[in-house]
Amino acid sequence: MRRTSVTPTGREVTFGDDEVVVSKTDPKGVITYANDVFLRVSGYAEHELIGQPHNIIRHPDFPRGVFKLLWDTLEAKQEIFAYVKNMTKSGDTYWVLAHVTPSLDASGRIVGHHSWRRRPEPAAVREVEGVYDVMRAEEARHTRTIEAAEASLALVGRVLAERGLSYDEFVWDLIARTTSLTR
């Protein structure tokens, strides 16, 4: 069941501070597990998600460059934290602070991925949206998807480097600054 052309509604849904959205995938990103919070927030039934590519929840205006960074990091057998904009089955939006790790077998081969996602602070989402706006604008200048993703990732790398940050440092800086504001 690939997502049919659902149009974003402009509405946002969220979940509780004490809730965690959890999923597991095979090495290619096909969903093998989704917890009850994931099912409720995404609006999909379990049978609609299991066996589907995780990008079934990809929001169409989320920068492809962030997904390239995510996959490059996982393929290097490293974990990544990222702010991600998703879309529900009905077209609503929800933001997550994702922590994605590769799952390795005893020989070190990637056998899947495990993702825990928390509700991000609204101040962090506002700031990350500015960076992602720059990425989307760069992606719009390219006709080929892979070139667009590579170009936007390179651009955001330069923009963040001007601030003296890598993407990881940017995410951790946002977490530190916005969490201290609200807790």
UniProtKB/TrEMBL annotation:
Gene3D superfamilies xref list: PAS domain
Domain PAS positions: 26-77
Source organism superkingdom: Bacteria
InterPro entries: PAS, PAS-like_dom_sf, PAS_fold_3
Organism lineage string: Bacteria, Bacillati, Actinomycetota, Actinomycetes, Micrococcales
Protein name, entry field: PAS domain-containing protein
